[in-house]
Amino acid sequence: MTVSERDGAPRMPLTVDQPVATPGSRILLRATKYDGSAHWIQPFTVIADDGQMVITQYRARTPIFTSRGEFRSPYDSRVYFWRDRWYNVFRLSKPRNDLSLWYCNVTTPLTVQPGQLSYVDLDSDEEVSNQRSRVTDRVSGGLSTAARTRVIMGCWSLSRLVSTCLEEL
Description:
Layout: E1 2-3, E2 10-11, E3 26-33, E4 38-49, E5 53-58, E6 63-66, E7 69-72, E8 76-82, E9 87-93, E10 99-107, E11 111-113, E12 116-129, E13 132-135, H1 145-168
Parallel strand pairs: 3-12
Antiparallel strand pairs: 1-2, 3-4, 4-5, 4-6, 5-8, 6-7, 8-9, 9-10, 10-12, 11-12, 12-13
């Protein structure tokens, strides 16, 4: 693990052998829990991929298939996934409205394969709206000490990101 000179956030070294997602293409997100069980499958449209960050979007009411059944979000979403950071960020807005909230997940770094994005959800999330933030999940039990350390470092990066999000709201 390295530390970014720009913002001091922990980073994983990039693996350059991951394919780049094609802007305009449809791609599936397959998120799992730490124990490997399915968490959710969600379709996205790729907006951009610079080899480090993938930006995607989906429209409100698009079906999201979760371990608890189908879910349809009321929000249009632009989602930022990094290949070297232990979190991802959802920018959520009601259709034809301004920004409603940011939803930040602590996860493993993104993996990109042809037609698929994947990460492991580490069950520590933060929702930021109207100058407030709240933690929405807790860290999964059964994590190794090394994994817990990564989650803590992801939370630290996330707290810095939350401060930035609050400035935009």
